DNA sequence: CCCATTTATCTTCCATGGAAGTTTGCATGG
DNA sequence: CCATGCAAACTTCCATGGAAGATAAATGGG
């Protein structure tokens, strides 16, 4: 395994971040990209030398990652990159369903100007989905789709909801990258997104909730059985 | 401010917890009980001497508390006990609405035996609410009510949902204790709880969702305006 | 050869000291 | 009296060493 990426030593003019933040960001990224594969078990010392820092900031970053549910520290035995079982994917989707439907509902209840701005951005993200899909650029499509859902919660005006969504999205990222290749090309998503956007523009909170929820329920009912079917114990 | 409570040094036969866990639990409790008042700013060193341990475990416990949203560490200036603005209470209630309605829905979809067990416990908690209220024991009522809602998410089978609910409940605890004295005696809650329980016993997921949601929406629409009205800037 | 026991090695856990940064209070000059 | 510079006192931040515990390896007895 190669040396871990880490933001260049000095960014002139930028706010100086602590080593803990650096370690946290680098580790999170490494886990997302399966640079540390799920189930991998290593020591803080090892990670520290790879990041070129002492054990302390790594230790504290790992505490935060553990709180995020990405790793577990086994007392006196090292840190474990949490593998995800099909049951975990189900749990994550259930949280996403609850959180995003509420976010859509809240956004639909905000002032018209706010809704319009958000809807424009959401529309752009959806357009990007169509464009990338037309070119067969599946990773690009996934990125645009993820952007749509992130924008939805970021504009809902509830920071706690946003943070929860970000946390579970981080957890689900690996599974998402996997299923992207497995399932059929996702042509229906853009249409579902436009239904949500229309409800937001209309300020129809109930319909926004209903359509956002339906979109994620459909995703769960497609993805979870898929993962369970291929008999994957963990990922 | 007196010395902080801390589980007695040795509990024979019990699993030995780390000092970090001790500090985390003690601090969380102290914040809940406003032993550290909201807005209070202190140093890790000070907390360490009160807990009779070194700075390190306190520092790490505070990282976890920060992740929970209970404190913020201001670089080189100490740790701040997060005060809650009315807007925060609103955010918290919105999360609770989303999480608990989903939990009720999930629980209603579980096997009959599981639902029956949960319903029995929920019924007991609701009965305790009636009993305490009849005696004018408001703190006792609050405890029974909190138990009901905790049981609901604990039996829903989704650990992540449970954890999220626990986190926001911890945040809201101070506000909850305050409004308990301000608003009228909450006689309607027990009835709403029984509606939820009936839906759970019937295995009616949609109705469980609807009733659980309605119960928390009503709470939000009562509590949030109340807090905003009395002009409280923070608590 | 197999199993129990001991030993060695690796790990987190915790304490402590020094470095860097922030704030506070005081002295000094106007 | 007020503003300004400066120094002293705190604060977190990070490094490092030792202690306690867990695992794996080695060793000895059957």
UniProtKB/TrEMBL annotation, chains A, B:
Keywords: DNA-binding, Transcription, Transcription regulation
Molecular function via GO: DNA binding; DNA-binding transcription factor activity
Keyword set includes DNA-binding: yes
Organism whose genome encodes this protein: Bosea lupini
UniProt protein name: DNA-binding transcriptional regulator, GntR family
Entry-linked PANTHER family: TRANSCRIPTIONAL REGULATOR, GNTR FAMILY (PTHR43537), UXU OPERON TRANSCRIPTIONAL REGULATOR (PTHR43537:SF5)
Boundaries of every HTH gntR-type domain copy: 17-84
InterPro entries: GntR_C, TF_FadR/GntR_C, Tscrpt_reg_HTH_GntR, WH-like_DNA-bd_sf, WH_DNA-bd_sf
Keyword Nuclease (UniProt): no
Name of a matching Pfam family: GntR
Ranges in coiled-coil conformation: none
